[in-house]
Amino acid sequence: xxxxxxxxxxxxxxxxxxxxxxxxxxxxxxxxxxxxxxxxxxxxxxxxxxxxxxxxxxxxxxxxxxxxxxxxxxxxxxxxxxxxxxxxxxxxxxxxxxxxxxxxxxxxxxxxxxxxxxxxxxxxxxxxxxxxxxxxxxxxxxxxxxxxxxxxxxxxxxxxxxxxxxxxxxxxxxxxxxxxxxxxxxxxxxxxxxxxxxxxxxxxxxxxxxxxxxxxxxxxxxxxxxxxxxxxxxxxxxxxxxxxxxxxxxxxxxxxxxxxxxxxxxxxxxxxxxxxxxxxxxxxxxxxxxxxxxxxxxxxxxxxxxxxxxxxxxxxxxxxxxxx
Length: 324
Description:
It contains 14 helices and twelve strands. It is α+β, with helices and mostly antiparallel strands. The protein folds into three domains: 2-92, Arc Repressor Mutant, subunit A; 96-237, no CATH class; 249-315, Alpha-Beta Plaits (2-Layer Sandwich), CATH 3.30.70.3270.
């Protein structure tokens, strides 16, 4: 079993639970693929007649193996298997302390993978469009962005599925490509309605986009919370608030139409809006916005019944052409 940990990069502490993630035949398959890729026919020669095309297709969808550009099959990193497992399979099969340890392991990987990009952005260097970096989008920007997208696939949010840190909706991730054929393809109108409903529930909109050499967009539109989502956890870990995801707006509260209802205070994910407690015999005081904490996600503005909050742009995005 230890050999399998090396092949796919599975953390050592999961060794007692290997069979929760891989079937016996998948373990045998990975052991034969150690350090190499093989065609489906070569795999059948190695393992006998049992590994059917259906079995290999299932192993690919489950994140056990990956397909090379030339059609050969190679082991997939355990990070891919873990995402699929957390989204659709067996969280209930692990003790809580192991779940928490696995989440910390995955978050450490995510943080290490993006540490260099975050440091570059914090230093003020320009963001290359070929890298998918998260940035907050307002609802009207989401609608304009979706006009440039051809296909929409609905996925569960992998961050909330893994972290389980809140009770907000999970079926909210809109991806623009269908990795391993897992997502449900939906219409542009349905995708917009998913985003609008997520916003009503208090989730922030964050685009993770890259532009290829032919000017085509790929990535996802995430509907994020501040408790579970990896970009916000990374921001806390690397002191990258307003950088990851990129903040492009500040909330501005106009006191005249505000009736002091406090809904914006409750909706703000970052405790950036404060309000004095009501004093006996006095009207409600309007809230105030602490701009150093405001990330510009816009959740306060969309939830204001009086439309008293306006989002003021503070910086352009390198993908501005797709939002404008």
